[in-house]
Amino acid sequence: MAAKCSICFFSYGFNGLSEGNYGNDVDSWKKNVSLFLPSRRRLLPVCCKLQRGNLSSYNRRQGKKPPFERIRPSAKLQPNSDDEFDPEHSVPNNGDMEPSVNREKTFEDDVDARGDAEHTDEKNSGTQFASAIETNRDVKHADEQITDSPAQSAVAKASAINGVGAELLSSVQPDDLIGMIKNAERNILLLNQARVHALEDLHKILSEKETLKGEINNLEKRLAEADAQIKFASQEKVHAELLEDQLENLQNELINSGGSGKSELELYENRSKISNEGALLARDGHIHSLSKEVDSLRTENLALKYDIQALKSMLSNLKNTDKRIVTLENESSFLESSMKELESKLSVSQQESSNISTLKTECKDLWAKVENLQLLLDKATKQADQAILVLQQNQDLRKKVDKLEESLEAATIFKASSEKTQQYNELMQQKIKLLEERLQKSDEEIYSYVQLYQESIKEFRDTLNSLKEESKKRALDEPVDDMPWEFWSCLLLTIDGWVLENKILNSEAVPLREMVWKRDRRICDAYVICKEKTEDEVISTFLQLISSQAR
């Protein structure tokens, strides 16, 4: 992700050169010539992006530097020429800055979409931003030292800084820089205006789309309500048809109630006959028991006959006894009466057996009739089932016809609404096409402005790089005047000690002495860097300086 920040372009003129810092312990010894930025009232805010890696590296470098004394809020830095710089035209007011900040926030998404093509420019801008902040801090530190130091040192340093600044101004034309900055400002304003117009068009399109979605949702709700009403009406129709069918069935049953009375009588007669047959069967069982008793009586009669014969024989033998004869006559009369009763019972049983045979024939006829009636009932039930199925099919067909009619009505309504929506969609598509064409034109204009802006930035960077290279070369070639003579005498003594100890040759010591007498910055920096190292490492670094100088 890229973090938003504001980079400050350099305004007209260079305010001077300041002391720089190398890092850790070397910061107090190194001198770095850099460009001075004017005060915050004169900075031109421009929206750009900076990678997190650049910010983190900048923070690390700032963390390594020694803590400078903070500038007081009352302290202000004065530029070289106040007449040539007009703050009213360069810096917007607070009221103008707030909408620009809001526009930057609203344009984040568009800028992120085009961020892939600008990563290389962002990295370079990040490095420039870091270098600009470093130079600004260096200048502030230099001004603090100037204010805190005595008057003589302040005058000497100011004269040196103004001399170097004059040389830099002679090599660079400030009118070109001012023109480039003004062109960049104009391009940025045009880009912001184009983006604002494009965003307004997009907001209008989105609002129209939202209204369309709301209308579509309302239409869908109305269609759902119509479908629910149609379903409820179809259910009521089906319920009414069922009630009508039930009424028709009840009327048919009432009409056919006269014919059904006869059938009920026949069923009642059949039931009575079946009950009679059951009674006859019970009687048959009783007759069978009576026949068994008759057989037993017959056997008893035979036995009695035998007894009578024996008695007759006994009477023949006992004619003399009248009493016995009277008794025997009484017994015979009794037996005869019993015989007559038995004969009457036999005649009754014979009549009952004849009646049973007739009842059996009648039962067979009744069973045949019952079977015929069952067949007729089966046929009637089948016909009734078929009639019920036909009625159900008719009801299903009626329901389907009603549903088809309802669907046709809904389809006609939907066709009318769909035609209207199609017309409206066509109008909206035409509007959207016009808006897309406008957006394409605006994007092309924005792209052209961006290309011009990038070209101007590249030219500006080239000039800055050339200025930095020249300043570095001059800084290396200049002697170090701020170091005390004790430092240089210490260097000469160490070199002489190395020669006496035969650690270096006399031929190698001669160029080192010349560099010390010339107060060369390279040998000063090398000595400061190798201050905490061993003596062999210091000698090797000094010999490398000689070898690089020979090359």
TrEMBL record:
Transmembrane segments: none annotated. It catalyses: [(1->4)-alpha-D-glucosyl](n) + ADP-alpha-D-glucose = [(1->4)-alpha-D-glucosyl](n+1) + ADP + H(+). One of its GO terms (molecular function) is alpha-1,4-glucan glucosyltransferase (ADP-glucose donor) activity. It comes from the Eukaryota. It is an enzyme of class 2 (transferase). Residues 57-103 are annotated as: Disordered. Keywords: Coiled coil. Residues 202-260, 311-345, 370-470 form a coiled coil. Its EC number is 2.4.1.21. The keyword Coiled coil applies. This is starch synthase. The lineage of its organism: Eukaryota, Viridiplantae, Streptophyta, Embryophyta, Tracheophyta.
